[in-house]
Amino acid sequence: MDLSLLPRALEAEIPESYRDEMGHMNVMWYTHLFDRAVITFFAQWGCDEAYMLAEHAGTFALTQHFRYLAEVRVGQRVAIHCRLVGRSERRVHFIQYMLHADGRVAATVEALATHVDMRVRRSSPWPPQIAAALDRLAEEHERLVGPPRLCGALRA
To answer: 45, 4 in Cβ contact below 8 A?
Structure first.
């Protein structure tokens, strides 16, 4: 499965400030990089800053499952590619893949988020235009790379 076919949401070179006492990137920076990539990924299906401000809506993270598969060291370049797995009336299920320049998977995060009405700070249904965009994207990602390997603990 060529994960580089999925939309790339972020590229980064790992700076010295990310190094821990083991000589590789500290785990907190994986979270940081995956979080930065989410902004680009969510904008691809309409959940961007303009939507959030206009509709008084957004998303809250519900759960995340990280896997660390190959060491990332200072000076290396990584790219984060995102894959939509599916959605329910209020939730979205997605996976992010951190890839080394040679295509090896360094880490993954499988996550669930929920749509939120920020006026009441409660979960709310996806508006029709975003629900349709999510459905299209899930189908496109399935065509690009086939079924995902899931942790089995998360479900939209």
So the answer is: no
**pTM of the full structure:** 0.94
Do the beta carbons of residue 74 and residue 12 sit within 8 Å? no
- With a cut of 80, say whether residue 45 has pLDDT above it: yes
Q: Cβ(115)–Cβ(123) under 8 Å?
A: yes
Instruction: List, in sequence order, every residue forming a beta bridge with 66; answer none if it has no partner.
Output: 109
Q: Please, are residues 38 and 98 in contact by the beta-carbon 8 Å criterion?
A: no
Per residue in 97-122, is it b (16+ CB within 10 Å) or e — as a string? bbbbeeeeebbbbbbbbbbbeeeeee
2 backbone dihedrals φ, ψ, rounded to 5°: -90, 95
CA-closest candidate to residue 85, choices 25, 151, 34: 151
Find, among 96, 100, 74, 88, the residue nearest to 135 by Cα.
88
Q: What is the pLDDT of residues 101-118, one digit of tens each?
A: 999 999 999 999 999 999
CA distance 7 to 97: 10
Cα angle, residue 32 at apex, residues 30 and 37 outer, rounded to 5°: 95
In sequence order, the 6+-apart residues with CB closer than 8 A to the CB of 146 are 1
